[in-house]
Amino acid sequence: MTNKTMNNETMANKTIEAIKNSKQPSTQELFNLINAYGITMLSIQDKNHKTITEMDVNYFDSYKTVFEFGQLNTDTKCIISQSDILSTESKLLQEEDMIHIKSSMSDGGYLNLVISHASNGKKITASKDYYEISLYELNQLLQKTSGDKPEYSCSIVKVKNKSGFDMRMIYPKQTFIDMEDDDTNGQLCIEDDVNFLKVNVMDDSCNQFYRKDSAESAEIAIMPYSEPFMEIRMVFEKLS
Fold first, then answer.
1. pTM for this prediction
2. For residues 156 and 227, what is the distance between their CA atoms, to the nearest angstrom?
3. Sheet holding 131-133, edge to edge
4. Which are the contacts of 74, defined by CB distance < 8 A and separation ≥ 6?
5. If we measure between CA atoms, which residue out of 74, 221, 95, 205 comes closest to residue 158?
6. So what's the pLDDT on residue 3?
7. Rounded distance, CA 71 to CA 173, Å?
């Protein structure tokens, strides 16, 4: 797990502004928009515009000779040689609130990226205010919600995914991690009067944990392993 500040929002805003002004950003700048948004539809078409591959993605990375598109915290990915991309153009469809990125490929086909909800679909962790933390650091925070003199109280938990699942827990009774012996694996447990959520968590790049602090609160965002489009958001109020 890398310890880096998420600052994709600033880069994304500059790229989107360039698109609005009919200035075509570079291929890599356009592809990097994937990292700022919650979900992007990727499709590969042949020269007759027949769809060969179609998948949802939410991360992009570039290496020496290839571009990699995939789903966070899974092994699902699409790898394309950089030399196969001949040109890339983009268009902001304001009425549909979408960004369409289209690359012409050396075999005559096309790579299409469609970002929906362009105005409000950015990941919360794309903000520079969030920073990546470890499972150990998350567990330390949760331990401060219990005991004789708790320092924090969990006020709300929100869980959502791309399928429309949206659950809220207000002041849950329990928020803790049931840790294994090596302190790198465990289960995040959250419970209120109606719901009980249990999610496997581990500290080896299978999960992603982000934190944002303010004077009165701490906010945690968790992207669980094998659930690339699920987000668990927890807000903790400071008690002292």
1. 0.74
2. 21
3. 131-133, 208-213, 217-223, 231-238, 152-160, 166-170
4. 225, 226, 228
5. 221
6. 37
7. 32
